Amino acid sequence: MLNAKDFIQRKLKQWYQNIEDIKIRYEFRPNIKTHIIEVLPIELCHNEDYMILEIELLEEFNNIYLNEEILFITKGGLNEIINPNLSLEHEPIELPYTAYGFESNWNGLSLNSSTILETVDNTSYALAA
Q1: Measured at the alpha carbon of residue 14, what is the angle toward residues 9 and 18, in degrees to the nearest 5?
Q2: Which domain covers residue 61, as residue numbers?
């Protein structure tokens, strides 16, 4: 049987892999035997699929780890994560080029005689569209 911290961290990593744009931070406070889980964005807390996952985690955890608690929080509440044991957040992707003069619409990308300046190994290449 996994200890409670490993159990929770395994579940949270599954959530992170399966829920788009989720941000999760987790901290265990041994003095009060409480596992604090922060989930963002707050809109997830109103999503029925997410709520089912949260309820399933609580039920499974409470049946196995009788002397410990889970507390779900979000930003702006009275409780906060101080020293996270786990932090899961998608990093923004930085592209290795800068694009200028694009016109886009939601039906696709259209180029309007624009120029793309691409930098590779500190060498600039101008590409005409």
Answers
A1: 145
A2: 4-88
Which residues contact residue 9 at a Cβ distance below 8 angstroms, ignoring those fewer than 6 apart?
Answer: 26, 85, 86
The DSSP-derived string for 63-76 is HH-TT-EEEEE-TT
Do 53 and 13 have their domain in common? yes
pLDDT score, position 94: 64
Does the pLDDT of residue 64 top 90, yes or no? yes
Could you write out the DSSP letters of every residue in 49-115? HHHHHHHHHHHHHHHH-TT-EEEEE-TTSS---SS-SEEE-PPPPPPSEEE-SEEEETTEEEE-S-E
